[in-house]
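User: Before I run my own analysis I want an independent prediction to cross-check against. Here's the chain; please return only the structure tokens and, at the end, one sentence I can use as a sanity check.
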Amino acid sequence: MRQVSAALFFTLLLAGCSQQAQPPNPNPDPTTLRVDPLVLSAQVGETISGTVLLPALQQPLSYTVTAKPDWLTVTPEQGTATPDAPLQVRASATCPETPQVLQGQVSFETQPRLPVERASITLICNPVPGDTTPEAFSFEQVNGAAPGSTVDSNEIIVSGINVPVTLTVQGGQILLNGALQAATSLTVHSGDRIRVRVVASSAAGGERIALVNIGGVSAAFVVITETPPPVGALQVSPAQLDFTAVGPEHKRTLWVTKDNSTASISASSSNCEGIVSYTPASARAPQAAFQVTPLKAGACYLTFRVGAESVNALITVTTTDVVVE
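Assistant: Structure tokens:
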């Protein structure tokens, strides 16, 4: 009984040692070569690499890459794996400039010919954690804008950030890199060119203010409508013309003025017909000249008007009769 027990114990011990010495099987399915997926993660604009391990079974296998995504570089594209040393394939990719996730597969062919799983490759491109606060900016105030006119600000360039930020505008519109934007909230990047557009107030001296915020930094664009100078009263000089003779050689000039105005000044009379003639019938402010020619003895008024405002000039014509005996 002791010998049987010892033999049985020795047999079990050998069996246990034999199991411990066996290497783990990297391919649970012996009919297909399994390739682990590869996940690459980097920031936008960065290049990253990883390793794909291509296994062998009981004999060396030659691998050849037959297909891959355009954004992936694989080296080497062919090589040999042995049971003790899998083939190491380097997979490299460069992230685009915008955050995104790219997925693809790398296909292989072996000699001797065996079925091989495609290597699944995932490229995760994350934004760069950086400065979201731009440099301070300002817009120059515009004075003397025409009433109701469209006014564009000076151009500023977004700087001091290395990630996209949000721009908002109140009371105006944004021109982004020269293009007018309908939205009042948009995303801008470092180097973008910004102008603000507002419509000037229709009231004299009125103001329009547009507020722009870029990544938490704000500035105002102020547009002030022009204030026209005060319009002077309608005046005529001289206020009275006295003629002592008649005829075109005795004509004189009346000057009618209305400062800071270009309105039309009209001349008229209800009782000067036949006494004097005048020309022109109307002329433009701020200063207009009217020629008055005496025709016969008498007195009358010439009236000059701008809108509801008027001023009169007294005209007298006196002649002396000479009697020859």
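Sanity check: Residues 2-21 form the longest helix (20 residues).
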